[in-house]
Design a protein that fits this description.
This protein is α+β, with helices and mostly antiparallel strands. It contains 18 helices and 5 strands.
Length: 386
């Protein structure tokens, strides 16, 4: 056989082979649709090599996107920059591997400053490119462009896996970090900044979420029935923690988990008391209720065990100053006013109420703002987040 006629060396077959090879790099579920578009004209087929994201946007269009006018412009030979603008596909996506596209493209950040920075933080691993793109899209839309750049820069950091699982919380926290005039912004002790490390961001986010939860579920209203009486026993003063401000202050003073009780306090499942000696907090205790009030957790600073004298004082206080009684069934509702006041600025700015930050207060404080981690993974979503 003449080597000049071999298919592998045939110049006319080479472009088709390169196109087929480029299409094979896309995710398998979309290859058939991409092949149909590419087969309509050689200029469309060339996009599989020169601009995979643009070809993908034509083959797997997002809702409301008119594909045919863009295809006609591509066939007519319109420059790539103009085609990308008409398809609303940022030019910085030219360098992304085809595996990054596994769902219809949503709106992505595309300012001059963003384009200048994002080129330095493209995903290093092809198999993680799709998750990388979803994180950038979500952070840019529900947070802001600086957060999207930060996520791209730290994407491979070991701590980032946990932050990605809490991406809605991260986006809202970063957004409110620049709104100190709002209620959720005022109670923030540490704000998100672009130069923050992943570890510091994780700790600051957890602290803000706990503080927000206290204000959302307790508001500023005191719980009048604190289930026991204030008293001093063996030089230890027992004081109720009955407002959101007091709960946050107690948690900060003892550096413990008492803020996580906000939802239970609001629903009449728990009460928190502070144990002080000479005016300084030394321990925290919880009272829990099912049918009767019981003595729950007693802990010192950083959730440590308390000294024997504190434990003995707690036992005497509870026995003496708590009157046993039958308790009503805990309610299942939570305050609506505080919840809506916290998030109204965000809803108005984004012009949408997302399903992970609903208008109605969720029953369980542990589940709110957590669709990406606890209920479903971001990678598993088949619809764009915007």
């Amino acid at each position: 056989m003449n080597a000049a006629l071999s298919p592998a060396r045939d110049g006319k077959c080479a472009p088709a082979n390169r196109t087929a090879q480029a299409i094979s790099r896309f995710a398998e579920p979309h290859r058939a649709a991409i092949s149909r578009i590419a087969s309509r004209h050689p200029r469309l087929a060339d996009l599989a090599i020169s601009f995979p994201a643009l070809l993908f946007s034509m083959a797997v269009p997002r809702r409301g996107f008119e594909v045919e006018p863009v295809i006609a412009r591509a066939i007519a030979g319109e420059p790539l920059a103009q085609l990308a603008a008409s398809a609303r596909v940022p030019m910085w996506m030219r360098k992304l591997h085809p595996l990054a596209f596994d769902m219809p493209l949503t709106k992505l950040p595309d300012s001059f400053e963003f384009r200048r920075q994002i080129a330095n933080h493209l995903p290093a691993k092809r198999r993680r490119a799709a998750l990388w793109l979803q994180v950038i899209a979500f952070a840019g839309h529900w947070g802001h462009e600086d957060l999207a750049i930060w996520c791209a820069r730290h994407f491979e950091h070991p701590q980032m896996k946990r932050l990605i699982s809490q991406l809605p919380r991260l986006a809202v926290w970063a957004w409110y970090s620049r709104r100190p005039d709002t209620w959720a912004g005022r109670i923030m002790r540490t704000r998100w900044t672009p130069d923050m490390s992943c570890a510091n961001a994780r700790d600051a986010l957890d602290a803000w979420m706990a503080d927000v939860e206290s204000h959302a579920f307790l508001s500023a209203e005191a719980r009048r029935d604190v289930w026991a009486r204030s008293a001093t026993v063996d030089d230890f003063a027992f004081e109720p923690v009955d407002t959101a401000e007091d709960l946050v202050a107690a948690a900060s003073a003892l550096k413990n988990c008492s803020r996580s009780y906000a939802g239970n306090i609001a629903c009449d499942r728990s009460r928190i008391w502070l144990v002080k000696k000479r005016g300084e907090p030394v321990a925290m205790l919880s009272l829990s209720s099912d049918s009767i009030v019981r003595l729950g957790e007693v802990s010192g600073p950083r959730n440590s065990a308390v000294p024997p004298e504190v434990a003995l004082a707690v036992a005497r206080w509870f026995r003496t100053y708590h009157t046993p009684r039958l308790m009503p069934r805990p309610c299942r509702s939570s305050p609506q006013g505080a919840w809506q006041a916290l998030w109204k600025p965000y809803w108005l700015a984004k012009r949408r109420i997302p399903d992970w930050l609903p208008l109605k207060t969720p029953r369980s404080p542990r589940n709110w703002l957590m669709p990406a981690g606890s209920r479903r993974r971001i990678r598993g979503r088949r619809r764009p987040p915007a």
